[in-house]
Amino acid sequence: MASLKNLLFLSLLFHSLLIIKCDDEEDNLLQGINQYRASLNLTALIKNDRAECLAGEVADQFKGQPCTNTTGSATIPGTEPQYPNFPQFLSKCHLNVTTTRDGQIMPACVPNLDPSLVISNFTKSQYSEYLNSTNFSGIGVNSEGNWIVVVLTTNTPEGSYSVGTNKDNGGSRLNPIGYLVFLLVGFFVLL
Ligand SMILES: *[C@@H]1O[C@H](CO)[C@@H](O)[C@H](O)[C@H]1NC(C)=O
Ligand SMILES: *[C@@H]1O[C@H](CO)[C@@H](O)[C@H](O)[C@H]1NC(C)=O
Ligand SMILES: *[C@@H]1O[C@H](CO)[C@@H](O)[C@H](O)[C@H]1NC(C)=O
Ligand SMILES: *[C@@H]1O[C@H](CO)[C@@H](O)[C@H](O)[C@H]1NC(C)=O
Ligand SMILES: *[C@@H]1O[C@H](CO)[C@@H](O)[C@H](O)[C@H]1NC(C)=O
Ligand SMILES: *[C@@H]1O[C@H](CO)[C@@H](O)[C@H](O)[C@H]1NC(C)=O
Questions:
Q1: Ligand 1 site, residue 79, Cβ cutoff 6 A
Q2: Minimum CA distance residue for ligand 6 atom 6
Q3: Distance between CA 89 and CA 34 in Å, rounded?
Q4: In the record, which residues are listed under signal peptide (predicted)?
Q5: Do residues 139 and 151 lie in contact, with contact meaning Cβ atoms separated by under 8 Å?
Q6: For the chain, what percentages of helix, strand and coil (3-state, to nearest 5) are there?
Q7: Which domain holds residue 102?
């Protein structure tokens, strides 16, 4: 019984380390993008939970696809990836097509999500057109494997990714608060 508890504890610890690591890359990119915008005298983008959820769904679709010179930020214009499950992504994130139309979805593939390559894949690629724009005001970042996805939102009704009728933005993932609760509960179970 004791060893089972130890195993559970180690597994919780391990998972919490993984989650923290993963969030780091996303927060780094978000900060990097806002520093880039500050250097252009543009307003900082504000984190949007539903855009982050959608970014997660898109990253999940790409997960496992290798990085090539025609994927992600190097995609040749006119051959942008299609999202056959987009309606499901939207409903998972409690969004709909009306409020997401003017948003921008930008997937990038970088082996091991090397931080300096990740930021340059956005600021020094065709994506810079969107990062340079005053149209956007919100951002969601998520990653899976070697893929990291940025979703930009506007402050117009057509791209606000607004809450609409939905309160739960969690999508298919446990958010950090949910994870903390999970860890605490696990901790008390162990005592
Ligand atoms: C940003 O604003 C500062 C102060 O107003 C100005 O000196 C600088 O040239 C501006 N930079 C850009 C990229 O517009
Ligand atoms: C991508 O790489 C392949 C082979 O590595 C090369 O033939 C092709 O020209 C490259 N395409 C671009 C757009 O750089
Ligand atoms: C984007 O990342 C790839 C690695 O997958 C790298 O080869 C490429 O140089 C990066 N592009 C830019 C513009 O930084
Ligand atoms: C975005 O702004 C940067 C800095 O002014 C510039 O180098 C880059 O070419 C711009 N990107 C596009 C697509 O216009
Ligand atoms: C910004 O919005 C205007 C008006 O809707 C549009 O014409 C333009 O293409 C947008 N720019 C970007 C970079 O999305
Ligand atoms: C999307 O949600 C908004 C807000 O809840 C609603 O006004 C709109 O009619 C919905 N659009 C569709 C296509 O369901």
A1: no
A2: 164
A3: 26
A4: 1-22
A5: yes
A6: 50, 15, 35
A7: 2-190
Total tally of structural domains belonging to the chain: 1
Among the residues of 63-175, which ranges form H helices? Answer: 86-92, 97-100, 115-123, 128-131
CA of 165 to the centre of ligand 6 (A): 8
Tokens of 66: 């290798």
Residues with CB under 6 A from ligand 2: 69-70
Sequence letter at residue 15: H
CA neighbor of 140 nearest in space, from 91, 188, 106: 106
Domain containing residue 61: CATH number? 3.40.33.10
Amino acid at position 114, single letter: D
**Per-residue pLDDT tens over the stretch 8-37:** 666 666 665 555 555 789 999 999 999 999
Contact 99/162 with Cβ under 8 angstroms? yes
Virtual torsion, Cα 126, 155, 47, 148, nearest 10 deg = -30
Q: What is the pLDDT of residues 86-141, one digit of tens each?
A: 999 999 999 999 999 999 999 999 999 999 999 999 999 999 999 999 999 999 99
pTM to 2 decimal places: 0.79
- What backbone phi and psi angles, to 5 degrees, belong to 107? -90, 140
> What is the pLDDT, as a whole number, of residue 23?
74
